[in-house]
Amino acid sequence: MPVMCGICGLVYAERERPVNPELVNIMTATITHRGPDQDGFYVRENVGLGSRRLSIIDLDGGQQPIHNEDKTVWVVFNGELYNYRDLTRSLTHLGHKFYTSTDTEVLVHAYEEFGDEFIEYLNGMFAFALWDTRKQRLIVARDRLGIKPLYYTLQDDALIFGSELKTILTYPGISRSVDLVALNEYLSFEYVPTPRTIFQGISQLPPGHALSFCRGRMNIWQYWDVNLGRSENIKPKRAKEYERELLSILRHAVEKEMVSDVPVGVLLSGGLDSSAVAALMTDIAPGNVKSFSVRFDDPSFDESSYARQVARYLGTEHYELTLTPNIALDLVPQIAKFLDQPLGDSSFIPTFLLSQFTRNHVKVALGGDGGDELFAGYSTLQAHRLVEYYERLVPGFVRHRVIPWFVDRMPVSFNNISLDFKLRRFIEGRGIPIVMRHHQWLGSFAVAQKRQLLQPWTQLLEKDTYHAAFEHQIQSGAKEALNQLLYCDLKMYLEGDILPKVDRASMANSLEVRVPLLNHTLVEYVAQIPHSMKLHGLTTKYILRQAMRDRLPKEILGRGKKGFNMPVAKWLTGELRPLLEDMLSADRLKREGFFNPHYVQQLLQDHQQGKQDNRKLLWTLLVFELWYEHWGNANFSTQSSSLQGIR
Length: 647
Hints:
Layout: E1 3-12, H1 21-29, E2 38-44, E3 47-55, E4 66-67, E5 73-81, H2 84-93, H3 104-114, E6 124-132, E7 137-142, E8 151-155, E9 158-162, H4 165-169, H5 180-189, E10 203-204, E11 209-214, E12 217-222, H6 239-257, E13 264-267, H7 272-284, E14 290-296, H8 304-314, E15 317-323, H9 325-331, H10 335-338, H11 348-359, E16 364-366, H12 371-375, H13 379-393, H14 396-408, H15 419-428, H16 434-442, H17 447-453, H18 462-465, H19 467-475, H20 481-507, E17 512-514, H21 520-527, H22 542-547, H23 554-557, H24 568-571, H25 577-583, H26 586-592, H27 597-608, H28 615-631, H29 637-643
Parallel strand pairs: 13-14, 13-16, 14-15, 16-17
Antiparallel strand pairs: 1-3, 1-9, 2-3, 4-5, 5-6, 6-7, 7-11, 8-9, 8-10, 11-12
Helix pairs in contact: 2-3, 6-7, 6-21, 7-8, 11-20, 19-20, 26-27
């Protein structure tokens, strides 16, 4: 029984120190939205585990926490295991007795049989916490790609963990001080890269990692990683073989993730990735697939015609949400309720509203996330190649003087990824290391801009900003720049931005979103495909386009990357202007002390007057200010003091 939910809990180092059940109840209540159907608790001596459940399969069974035969091993689980039936059969053959039909129960028996290595047998998306009563040992783990979140902290001689930061924040005495290095990273990337969080002392467990806590001692280890360097050291196959194998593995991944006792839909943008998933779903269940998309009033942001075209071509039952400015703008002031860590990706808004709309029709939906990272889909990768030609073929005087002069005088457009926007970003990225340039193009504030933005007292070091990116470049094991960038995208942009955005937006609406493109068997296969078959010249996702050419319309196969954006630049000069000016007022910024009010006011003025397109900078700041107002220290003082007695 796959079960989407949220988990949380704590373990004290000393066995004699009891956990207060009321504290676990309060922690669990903060994530009711992740699992509105049921709650469950295990509180014994120095350990407390909590879970919230969203029932998908075997709707009447599977109350968590789940235990083994003699109740010496207990687990709370968020996610689903696609190979649980095979594991159940194998473990039953080895003598284990199951009392439920849930995938969760596999965990306790697999742990008994294989020890810590049991995690390597799991195929799925998950975060779980497993308590061994005999060893007085807790194991928490996160899936290979980081589809499901897991946060933790060591405080008060205890390990405290949860699916969302807000569960940890309920623990009395937890510091809510902003981590200045994390703030520095957020301003650059629009998210805080793992393992940091925006709060000092609270971490996120990296993807493919597990953590154990036993009598006060913590140990973290990596149980999986992807090796993109493999594709550089093997003899390539013929393109036809890759196409055939890719299609077979992808189809198998989609088929496994369609298993459910409730209706399953697909989030269909009209892009290649979601269209490929939809096409394979209709192959597997013809006439029984519901598709969901968003239509924008602004034509430069609207992709709904492509989604409708795919839906007609595949024969899905198609539903479309018309996203008017009023619907979107009503949500903006509330986003901090759902984001307990700032996330400066404006597509959170349409993702949230699409999830809300979809949940009215189905409980489970498949999405196309991960395709850009696997198959080299981002336009920045094309731009890196263009930079090489630009530096080699264009004379220095023209590069350094003429073109910047021309670009600086181009009229500013607030349309979606307009020409002037792309050219300005392109020019800004010249002359810096490729990994740094890549994230600067994808992100928000550049280093020089942060020097003007941040107050001197923060004492942030510039080298800290891109440290994580350079580390991943080294860890990739790849020599080719493209493979290094793809590895960075998997470890940073996908895990830090795309997946949290979808997780928070969907789970806030009690919708389960599955991502078949990130099944680790598919990821491992794609990793050994030569990078030249992903970015072929300037053609992105080449091998995926070839594999799907008989299953999708030519117009879809030939489309470039557009992105799931909304008209933020225009709204910041119109309907959102009062909120923006209030949240970024000089008085507020002076009181908080993070940002230079004069510089921020200049950003506002230049954008309002149409001199510069500062949409990304202003939205990044707006989201932080909304987050800080909701989650900052002052808002927790009363709650924390009232809970002091229940530790």
